[in-house]
Amino acid sequence: MAAAQAKGLSVDALVRAALDRILAEEAGISGPATGAALVAAMQASPYREIDLGVARHRFPVRDVGL
Fold it and tell me: Is the pTM of this model over 0.70?
């Protein structure tokens, strides 16, 4: 709590920043979290066979007379 107060952050914000830094280091990402960093992390994933695409379905629609 003292470290958070010294930095002018809430405890939650300080813990979040620390976790983000640790996860970025493990993923080999440096710098701010950007779309490019996300793409790099996904490309470096050992689980490349997982499909992250969104399934699109057409829903039945009735004609409406106006």
Answer: no
